[in-house]
Design brief:
Blueprint (H helix, E strand, L loop, with lengths): L5 E3 L19 E3 L22 E3 L4 H6 L3 H9 L8 E2 L2 E2 L2 H38 L1 H4 L6
Parallel strand pairs: 1-2, 2-3, 3-4
Antiparallel strand pairs: 4-5
Helix pairs in contact: 2-3
Length: 142
Amino acid sequence: MKNLKVLNLNGSKLDSLNNIPDMPCLEELNLDGNAITSLDELAKLGHLSKLVKLSMNGTPLAEEKGDDLKKEILIALMDKMKLLKELNGEPFDEELMKDAKETKEARIQEAIEAKKAADEAAAEAARLAAENPEAAAPEEDA
C-alpha cells in the first residue's frame, strides 16, 4: 500500500478513521457515504501529507456542517496537508483558506483565554479555601 495513490472507501460504513494506514504516496481519498460524525476524526488523517483531494460527501458530518465542512477540514488539516487542493470534488480558493486560518487562530486564542480564566478561578478558590478552612471542610452529619 506504500505506492497507492487513490483510495476509494465510498460507502464502507466507517465511523472512525483510526485504522487508516500510513500511505506516503496517497493523493486522493474518497470517504463519501461513510458514518463519520465527529470533527475529531479529521486529525487522524494528518499523516497523509501528500493528499491532494479529499471527499467526505454524504457523511453525517457533512450533513451537520453543510458548507462549513470544507473550512473545518482545512482548520484540522492545513498544517499537515500542504498539498491539499480539492475538497468534496471542488477546488477551494485562497479566501476559504484565509478564513480557515483566521478561525483557527481565533479558536486557539479562545482556548488560551479559557485556560487562563480556569487557572485564575482555581487559584482564587484555593486562596479562599486557605483563608477560611472551615468553609471548605465538609459538614458532618449530626
